[in-house]
From TrEMBL:
This is Aminotransferase class V-fold PLP-dependent enzyme. Residues 2-183, 229-354 form the Aminotransferase class V domain. Its cofactor is pyridoxal 5'-phosphate. Belongs to the class-V pyridoxal-phosphate-dependent aminotransferase family. NifS/IscS subfamily. It holds the Pfam family Aminotran_5. The keyword Iron-sulfur applies. It comes from Cellulomonas xiejunii. It comes from the Bacteria. It catalyses: (sulfur carrier)-H + L-cysteine = (sulfur carrier)-SH + L-alanine. GO terms for molecular function: transaminase activity.
Length: 371
């Protein structure tokens, strides 16, 4: 498997923690009996561990059942909390589909509009252009830490500084970055995805002190995650993140070298191909290329039959195999798109074998299509 974006295999340590917590933390942590108190201790411990790994305080961390729900809720609640200041939501053109949808929903609910900031050929925003589009009357600005489809990292610190001067909160999607690279403080609100770092499906929202949020959903004891979260899942997510952070430097070096191999060999050995994304300032484990005269579904199927699981289309909507809105925004080739998102323990031999097989696979697909 060479594409684990958002759904990496569960780490062994996380699996062990999950199984143990199923026995020890099964109860409702809001209950006052012994089993409930034990579950509360486990949940508090998970939140503290996540906060430490994310550079936050435990009271700044909220847990949500999925990353998509976390993204939706964060955009909606920050926009609603700022409704007296403005109603427009600003997003980059290369945000994941869930954020484009959330921005449209939140802006419409407040009577505002979505302002979209374009990117360069590597998929990166210009901080000055981003600040100019935001102005001082937007409800919230949204920017990914790095693009999970092409790997390009964004100038988050520069944009955040401009947003502080403008008085507009910056919401940063760190879903593709956490556990793979150091994210720093990354804005005023961060939304992370445990499934991407080898934990179970779980969304993590960090809201820095001073950011106003107001939910637009019914009142619940758990204000930011109605109904609460599954305690064993939270504990497994925290254990997985601790391990990912501890192994991050070694995993970075291992996968970055293999991505370099893919980038160079694909460009040299496959005719009419475009390798996209920043070659240096990028995530260590993501690489995307597009092949002219090749259908995305056909090449994914052909590579799957050869034993390689890869992605195509937008990373966030790959099941539809629609042309990637990210690549379209970059102005690069969208046809025959192939995406690799390497797991932390990927075998070098598998990546080299992929590069050996790819040229023939592309040639076969082109021949079948009469290209």
């Amino acid at each position: 498997m060479l594409d684990v974006a958002g759904h990496a295999p569960l780490r062994a340590t996380a699996r062990a923690a999950l199984l143990e917590a199923l026995d020890q933390g099964w109860a409702d942590p809001r209950r006052l009996f012994a089993e409930g108190r034990r579950a509360r201790l486990l949940l508090d411990g998970a939140r503290e561990a996540l906060a430490e790994s994310l550079g936050a305080r435990p009271d700044e961390v909220d847990l949500v059942p999925t990353h998509t729900l976390a993204l939706h809720g964060a955009v909606r609640s920050v926009a609603r909390g700022r409704r007296r200041t403005g109603a427009d939501v600003v997003v980059s053109a290369v945000e994941r589909a869930a954020l484009h949808h959330a921005a449209a929903f939140a802006a419409a609910a407040g009577g505002g509009d979505v302002r979209t900031v374009g990117v360069d050929a590597d998929g990166r925003v210009d901080p000055e252009l981003f600040a100019a589009v935001v102005g001082e009357d937007a409800a919230v600005a949204v920017l990914q830490h790095a693009n999970g489809e092409v790997g390009t990292r964004q100038p988050v610190d520069d944009v955040h500084e401009a947003m502080r001067r403008a008085g507009v909160p910056l919401l940063v999607d760190v879903g593709a970055s956490v556990g793979h690279v150091d994210i720093g403080r990354a804005g005023d609100v961060m939304v992370a995805d445990a499934g991407d770092w080898g934990g179970p499906p779980l969304g993590v929202v960090v809201t820095r002190t001073g950011v106003r949020r107001s939910p637009d959903w019914p009142e619940d004891d758990e204000r930011w995650s109605p109904g609460g979260v599954h305690v064993p899942m939270a504990l497994a997510a925290a254990v997985a993140l601790q391990e990912a952070v501890a192994q991050r430097a070694a995993a970075d070096a291992h996968r970055r070298a293999l991505v370099d191999v893919v980038r160079h060999r694909v460009a040299a050995e496959v005719p009419d191909v475009q390798v996209v994304g920043d070659p240096v300032d990028r995530l260590p484990h993501v690489v995307t290329f597009s092949c002219l005269y090749v259908d995305g579904e056909a090449i994914v199927d052909r590579l799957d039959r050869a034993g390689f699981g890869v992605g195509s289309g937008s990373a966030c909507t790959s099941s539809t195999l629609e042309p990637s809105h990210v690549l379209a925004a970059m102005g690069v080739l969208t046809q025959g798109n192939v995406r690799l998102c390497l797991p932390h323990d990927v075998a070098a031999a598998d990546v080299h074998r992929f590069c050996d097989v790819l040229p023939g696979a592309v040639a076969e697909v082109r021949a079948a299509l009469g290209a």
